[in-house]
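agent> call fold_tool(seq_1)
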Amino acid sequence: MAIEQSTLEIQTEMEGSNTKIIFEIGHPAQVHLFKYIIWDLAKKGHHTKVVARERERVVSPLLDIYGIEHEFMKPNARGMIGKSITLIRNDMTLLRIARKFEPDIFLSVGSPYSAGISSILGKPHISLTDTEDARIQLKLMVPFTESILTPDCFLKAFPEKKHIRYPGYHELAYLHPKRFRPDPSILEYLGVNKDEKYVIMRFSAWDASHDIGQHGFRSYEERLSLVLEIEKYAKVFISSEIPLKGELERRRINIPIHRIHDALYYASLYVGDGHKMAAESGILGTPSIIISTRWNRTGNFRDFVKKYGIVKAFEDIEPVHRTITSLLEGGESAKRMWKRRADKMIRGKIDVTAFLIYFIENYPQSHKIYMEEKDALFANFKGVNNG
């Protein structure tokens, strides 16, 4: 279960100045990415407005659970025509909300909506992104964004005066040891005992613009064959963006939606074609397997797979069966190995939430400080046990 953590004590220009910030959220993971920032800024007297796009019917319930008030835009549509129409509608919705709220700053994850409307209103837009192949969104976002924050492993270069590279990942904003403590009561929800093996599987929709021409699982038969193979060793729980049927539906995971990271932490293994959950599992020290043709197109996954070994990536299903057998037969030794790898990775990274809070509160001076002395700046946010 996630726990609150005090922010690094740094004097800020904006503290107590009632800064108004719009956060745009379009994915469940972005709720987790921003929740600590929103809570901390509110405690300091700033005003935040969350504008959300629903996905999987999870975004709004998550915001409600965390007590974060929000307004809605239209969810992302399928197909380029649908996405174009939705872009216009959401621009109008966000413009209406922003004119009423009168924000000082817009914050989003690579959103063309916040980029465009912030430009119309003459306000700065701070964007986070870790998805190099989201080409359409980036093309629409970059010209109207003042600061673009990416992991330092990001493969693409934005204009130098805009690009902030930090030593961390989006997932460390909410899974860093200073933010997250696993709650073993999740095992009761799952109906497993502490010594029982279980595997979390994830099936993604592959309907984003950067998914065009790429694939994970190819068929129901591929998914089912893997489930049946895993069940020779462990219980299976499925999280899915796509409709499930027959043998797969009865294995759907049924837990409170905000407890998924607890479930991933105690799992013996993660297997799926969902990139976000694969990254989260590896960072939590759970052996993680992703089936995806696009894993090598982003710097963070190159790190996870090649540099730290916390995710195993495959583009076809056949070798996955052998790897699953090896990892599950390895039992606790595989978990211990993954935890060591994850801990090593985290020791070299920053507390991403603390850095983002600092960056927002000191903006735009924080951008200038990065450009002049970034090494000294990041030294303030490293260290797993301090704070």
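agent> call fold_tool(seq_2)
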Amino acid sequence: MSKKKLISEVKYSFKELFKTQPLLLFSPGRINLIGEHTDYNDGFAFPAAINKGIVLAISKSDSDNNKVYALNKKELFTFKSEQIKPLEYGSWKNYILGVVSELQKIGKDIGNFNSVFAGNIPVGAGLSSSAALENSFVFGLNEIFHLGLSKNEMILISQKAEHNFAGVKCGIMDQYASMFGVKKSALLLDCRTIESKTYKIDFKDYKLMLINSNVKHDLSDSAYNDRREVCFRISKKLNIKALRDASKDDMATIKKDISNGDYQKALFVINENQRVKLFSEAIKEGDLKTLGNLLYQSHEGLSKNYKVSCDELDFLVDQTKQNPNVLGSRMMGGGFGGCTLNLIKKDEYIKFKKVISEKFNKTFGKDCSVYAVKLSKGTHVLNSNK
């Protein structure tokens, strides 16, 4: 569904349900050009907001509870603001409960509210629909209740909501990119200082293609948190704050004391941080070939060293290597499913979409989904209800 249609449907649904004018916001999903699993290691990443996201309609309510209508799911969730706890099978509800709870923890006075939201981010694609949802609510609540929060404060609320209510110990990259995104640009993000430098990107005759394997992954399962624990354990062994501070020479000093699997995972993070820096230099020089090569190197590390890929993702990346019109490809996101990110010639997009879709279906007996994305603006108000 297009963004324009999404806005129209959310606005209409809100007026039907609550008979009043809402504040309307858009909060985008994100892609990460390079720098995967580096964020929780205080490292560097290169995310960008995209033109797919969550539209939220929200307003104050005079009732004694909060109402949230998930338009895509046709589910109405009603809750009171007192004694908020995570729901055992809360799915999307926990992200919203988490935001409200974390705002309460910092002493923000929130009244009751009504809301409707819908999105066009493919679920399970690794495009951070959860961060977009969290950001939309913290931004919306900040606006209607005049909480006076900065964007930096808001993304920390979103991150804590994910940690404490969804059980995912995510880094800050997803929330940051969704909140701070700049049109036609990516953000070189330092995940330690939570500061970024904006890089306007001209892909020239190429465009970004996402191929969703439609393998559903759940980041709250043990695999993601296990990788995080490995990194923290090795940092402690090296007596450093995070793997961002480690070098290959440092790793050599403890190689005999740790498993080969843990060694390879830590080495991946060190190499990936270096790739992010090389990627930024290639952007400045307009060197698209190097950008593509770095994407392939990143995937190789994610698959062979960090071991967060899967057969479907490896297949999609391998297929692009046979096509001279694709400069680079890699899996994107937490892993174990989701999307590959591909840099492909604009005039070959339709042809390759047909070819890869047929090959994927023939190999796995199911369909992949293919779509183009543009680099977009971060979370923002679409109108004013005043």
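agent> summarizing second result for user.
The longest strand covers residues 47-60. The CA atoms of residues 16 and 53 lie 23 Å apart.
agent> awaiting next instruction.
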